[in-house]
Amino acid sequence: MMEPQEIKNRLEETFEGATVLVEDLTGTKDHFRVTVVSEQFEGKSLIDQHQLVYAPFKEEIGGPIHAFSIKTYTPEKWEEEQQTKIQ
Amino acid sequence: MTKEDVLQNIEGEVASNPIMVYMKGTPDFPQCGFSNRVVQIFRQLGVPFEAKNVLEDPQFRYILQEYSNWPTIPQVFVNGKLIGGSDICMEMYENGELQELVKQATTAEKQ
Questions:
Q1: What are the phi and psi torsion angles at A28 (to 5°)?
Q2: Which of B24, B67, B77, B105 could potentially form a cystine with B20 if both were Cys, beta carbons 3.0 to 4.6 Å apart?
Q3: Residue B6 pLDDT > 70
Q4: What pLDDT, on the 0 to 100 scale, is given for residue B80?
Q5: Does B109 score more than 60 pLDDT?
Q6: What's the mean pLDDT when you consider all of chain B?
Q7: Is A72 exposed, middle or buried (0-12, 13-18, 19+ CB in 10 A)?
Q8: Element (H, E) at B107
Q9: Which phi-psi region, left, alpha or beta, contains residue A20 (left: φ > 0; alpha: ψ -120 to 50)?
């Protein structure tokens, strides 16, 4: 188990100025979906983006964290996504 | 089997199969929703893929994770290269990149 707030804090430390959403999918604090919007993803492949998000949780994934679903956006992509949702 | 043997096996598997999926369970009996999602994507695309159940040997998954530097299962390799897990597969499927990549991988095989 891991506190969603701790996940959020750690991601915000890793990705300065990022928008971070953490969802506890099962209410059991071990299956999470995280959304990170950061300029650091600019020009990086999806796999590199996800590696960056996994990195601060190397110790917990496979242990206290059972599932860790990731969605990454550059600020530009995120903006586009929000526009699509509104339409 | 030593760790080196296992690493060598992995190398061989990802090199000889254009699409290699390491998953929990089997394609017909997936034991995890994320693994199932990957199987469904490739079935939807109608392309053959090779799958290996990482749960068969408890040691295996740790060696695989070391090989790929990827912490979660499933792991999908196309043409010997890790493309990611179920989130990336889904995203690439939705934006059409996966179809393109798979087409290239399966065409290369025929040559």
A1: -110, 5
A2: B77
A3: yes
A4: 95
A5: no
A6: 94
A7: buried
A8: helix B97-110
A9: beta
Question: What's the token pair of residue A67?
Answer: 């599932």
Number of domains chain B contains:
1
How many residue pairs bridge chain A and chain B with CB atoms within 8 Å of each other? 34
**Amino acid identity, residue B96?**
G
> What is the ipTM score, two decimals?
0.85
Task: State which residues form the domain around B80.
Answer: 3-110
Of B65, B87, B92, the CB nearest to A70: B87
DSSP state, residue B55: G
Chain A residues bordering chain B (beta-carbon distance below 8 Å): 46-47, 50-51, 54, 57-58, 61-62, 67-71
Closest by Cα among A25, A40, A65 to B71? A65
Q: Please compute, for residue A41, the number of CA atoms within 13 A of its CA located in the half-sphere on the CB side.
A: 24
For the segment(s) A4-86, the CATH number from 3.40.50.12780, 3.90.700.10, 3.30.450.20, 3.30.300.90 is 3.30.300.90
Q: Residue A57: which of A20, A14, A21, A28 has the closest Cα? A: A14
CATH number at residue B62: 3.40.30.10
**What whole-number percentage of chain B has pLDDT above 70?**
96
d(CA B47, CA B41): 10
pLDDT at A87: 67
Q: On the CB side of B7, how many CA atoms lie within 13 Å of its CA?
A: 9
